Amino acid sequence: MPRGISRHLVRFVEVGGEVFPVKEATDRFVLREHTLLRSLAEHSVPVVEAYATVIDRASGAGEELGGLLITRHLPFSQPYRSLFTGRGLPGLRTRLLDALVGLFVRLHLAGFYWATVRCRTRCSAGTPARSRPTSSMPRPARCTRG
After folding, report:
1. Domain total for the chain?
2. Residues 6+ apart with CB under 8 A from 131
3. Considering only Cβ atoms within 10 Å of each terminal Cβ, which end of the chain, N or C, has fewer?
4. pTM score, two decimals?
5. 3-state secondary structure of 82
């Protein structure tokens, strides 16, 4: 599967002909992202389907393990990085940026405001990125250096 850059471990699992990305993070992060994805979907914002969470995990030796967020893979999806850096169709970059702007407008109209597109980039530049809801939607996870 094509993979983008992620600060969390992401594995892809195939079950019954379907592909599920499984992201490992803290239980708190997993629960917040699951709630946020469900809330955005209820507002008709195009997001991946939050399929399941697994929390309170431990190894056989009793060591605490991170939680898992399981989503349904979107067929034909590609990481933005590969689309912007690869040799694509003429005008692809402009169309992708237009689509991204359209997505941000839909997020804003649904009551969600994300202060930066690339949380990782902003944090590495020393500027804390903040995501904040503009309505009663659950607060998204904050970017932290790490």
Report:
1. 1
2. 113, 114, 115, 119, 139, 140, 141, 142, 143
3. C
4. 0.64
5. helix
